[in-house]
Design brief:
Oligomer: homodimer
Strand content of chain A: 15-25%
Structural class of chain A: alpha/beta
CATH superfamily of the largest domain in chain A: Zn peptidases
Shape of chain A: globular
Strand order of the largest sheet of chain A: 1-2-6-3-7-18
Number of helices of chain A: 12
CATH architecture of the largest domain in chain A: 3-Layer(aba) Sandwich
Chain lengths: 461, 461
């Protein structure tokens, strides 16, 4: 991989400028007004894959945003790596908290600031450039396939159908994804567990029209007060979720497993300082790190109702809304938890309040086996470029597509992320370190190398 | 008052067109962008007062929106009626629920639809036209003074200073206000009690920036969940407000007083049907009517935090907000209740959440004496035009200025409203009946007449 590494160093400036151009496209998948921008981002990738030397490059139309597919089959007898990434990004609100516009990338303090810089345009683009380097230098050691979708931030709705109807053509030996974080730049890590998710929106309706809170106050049920009461009922004083049956399928980790996870460096004082909070809280009996990785959650992600403008308005609104998500752990099933939530939440409503619940999206939790050659190859690749063996860690976020790859393509996933938790993904001022971008491009070819070598050794045995 | 009544009938069409022109000015006092519209509405009144024959007509500048003052002193020995009204209106959101634009008044089914049609531009304008009719026909029986302000919907902040610094010039024998409702068009009523109000905004801050709910969920305190819990704590399961000391100064009505108020016709089935709710709820031990008039309340008027746009965003926000108001009854003091709320609400916050509370405005509750000649004059005036003696009733809303008139000018107020509770004030599709507009203009001169006559009789005795 010497020529590849040489190629990367020589072309680094161009690799960076290409990423900045990619980041300038406001590909916010959740907003209908950005539909064309998603198309634009996909077309951008199509062109770059072609330039990199990929074959069968195509834009796959879906009911939502298109999927970009590309491949390079050098020998059917060699192993195949399927790379997954996404080119869509989160919304940017609240806009006024950004220090520079989210779609005008700038480099400050060695970091690229832009929406999607880390999640996941930056991390996706590392794979494209590593692939280009291997192809252009003749060092691509195995077959490669790429699926870059545009609906990850809105539940990857089109992907399952695409995987199912193309299962044969997508056959691979491992899925490789960079959409997670490392512990620190000097502490590489591999993600071996992800939480699942179920995301819902609740709508409460009280009186059929907004009412004057002076004239009617006290005599009618206020849907905002009621929504607050119902949400407050969802957790007890120990921080446990009260939905009946919620914990029934949660796998409790053994003391050994908990001890292993506690190896991950975590400085609670620093954590509080970084967030500027005086205290942390959560489910009783678990550490902060456990609460964020091996335990399920329930968070209100948005709430609104009544008058929210400047000044005062004395109104009892007709409606109140909340967006609520739960993070799930093995072996919770998002369909089942969504139903348990719906049943329980509806049961909390007093007479005079109508409840309407909409399921937005879900994803199953996942655990990655650590005794595979794919995991070993990832360890070796990171050790090569970081000079240190990566630590296995569980992450709190969800990539709902990971369990789907296993289910539909019968293949395991390696989650080799190069971002950091402090990258502000999903928040204002998202960024991605230049160090991280480069380290990703350098490390990925070694994964190809070791995975191919270990596969050959296994076949030989 | 025959010539006056004749003049009203003859000029009715013009009176209506003038009101429509007045309603076209979007005088929303809570929004800075409408500052010029408030000025415009005030100037409109200035011109009409001059045309009506008022003297000393002037625009009084304030730190907020201007006050319109006008008067007609025909003989200092005669009694003086001080009329109060307001030309500012509530915001119009949610705009999509209006059947016609809020500032393009239309007449449908005998009602004028526009923001401010009833509250309080329409009711204020009745006084101007009744005054014009009496002046133009030479039948004005006493002195008249007018204060029409532009900050009623935002707490009347400039008025106390204006009253205090002009107390001598504003001296009057009674204050007359039409900013309340009658029971029904065939059931006239006079308002003898109003609730007070204290309106606050609370801001909760958790982590100093928005966080990804997957990465951080479970390990940090979510300010929205916390806000819901804190709001839920403000009432117990009997619908009573839990703020320590909240009920200490509430005057409990005697069984006789409660029986008298129960005379007000109120059809609970109809009430539920009108609001399209299956049930009503509120403080245990009180009727719906009592809950809305003689009992204090706590309502969330607005709530917001996190992602409230289209689709899903997996965020734990840094901040969550609510606008909360309490309606007060004699002898609660809004300063004191605001402080009790602030102390209690702050005490509910867990470690890791900062609370910031802003007091928006307040007004004291009020009870009107029914043994005065002013009350008798109002009864006689309504009996004259409606053919029925008005029923005394308590209203749930607040006019914070009423207790101020008593405190600063040492004068009682008559609340003779011609609107209906079903006028949708503060809601989409606010309207005011043509019947009500006309009845108001007809009735007001009789109040002037009887009040002058009864005052003379009292002096003679």
């Amino acid at each position: 991989m010497q020529k590849t590494q040489q190629y990367i160093q020589t072309n680094l400036n161009r690799f960076l400028n290409e990423l900045l151009a990619f980041l300038r496209i406001p590909s916010i998948s959740t907003k209908a007004e950005h539909k064309e921008d998603l198309q634009k981002a996909a077309s951008f990738l199509i062109e770059r894959f072609k330039e990199a030397g990929a074959d069968a490059v195509k834009l796959v139309s879906t009911y939502g945003h298109p999927i970009v597919y590309a491949e390079k089959i050098i020998d059917p007898r060699l192993p195949t790596i399927l790379v997954y990434g996404h080119y869509d990004v989160q919304p940017v609100e609240p806009l006024h908290l950004w220090h520079s516009p989210p779609f005008e990338p700038v480099i400050r303090d060695g970091k690229i600031f832009a929406r999607g810089a880390s999640d996941d345009k930056g991390q996706t683009y590392m794979h494209l450039k590593a692939f280009e380097a291997m192809v252009k230098t003749g060092e691509l050691p195995c077959n490669a396939k790429f699926i870059i979708e545009g609906e990850e931030e809105v539940g990857s709705e089109s992907l399952p159908a695409f995987l199912k109807s193309n299962a044969e053509g997508l056959a691979a030996d491992v899925v490789l994804i960079s959409d997670t974080s490392m512990i620190a730049n000097h502490t590489p890590s591999l993600t071996v567990g992800l939480r699942g998710i179920v995301y819902l929106q609740v709508e409460l309706t009280g009186p059929q029209r907004d009412l004057h809170s002076g004239v009617y106050g006290g005599g009618v049920i206020n849907p905002i007060n009621t929504l607050c009461q119902m949400i407050a009922c969802l957790k007890d004083e120990k921080g446990r979720i009260t939905i009946p049956g919620f914990y029934d399928k949660v796998t409790e980790l053994s003391p050994q497993e908990r001890a292993a996870l506690a190896q991950v460096p975590f400085d609670e004082e620093n954590f509080k300082k970084e967030l500027a909070v005086e205290g942390v809280a959560g489910e009783e009996g678990y550490t902060t790190l456990e609460r964020m990785t091996i335990r399920p959650t329930l968070d209100v992600n948005g709430i609104w109702g009544g008058y929210t403008g400047e000044g005062a308005k004395t109104v009892i609104p007709s409606k109140a809304y909340a967006k609520i998500s739960m993070r799930l752990v093995p072996d919770q099933d998002f369909h089942e938890i969504g139903q348990l939530f719906t049943d329980y939440f509806t049961s909390l409503a007093p007479r005079g309040i109508k409840v309407n619940i909409q399921l937005y999206h879900g994803g199953q939790p996942v655990v990655v086996p650590m005794d595979s050659i794919a995991y070993r190859a990832a360890e070796l690749a990171m050790e090569k470029t970081f000079g240190k063996k990566p630590i296995p860690q569980r992450e709190g976020g969800s990539i709902p597509i990971v369990p789907l790859f296993h289910q539909i393509l019968k293949v395991n996933t390696i989650m080799m992320g190069f971002g950091l938790n402090s990258d502000n993904i999903h928040s204002p001022n998202e960024h991605f370190g230049l160090f991280n971008y480069l380290k990703g491009i350098e490390t990925i070819p070694y994964f190809y190398h070791y995975f191919t070598e270990l596969s050959k050794q296994q076949q030989a045995r």
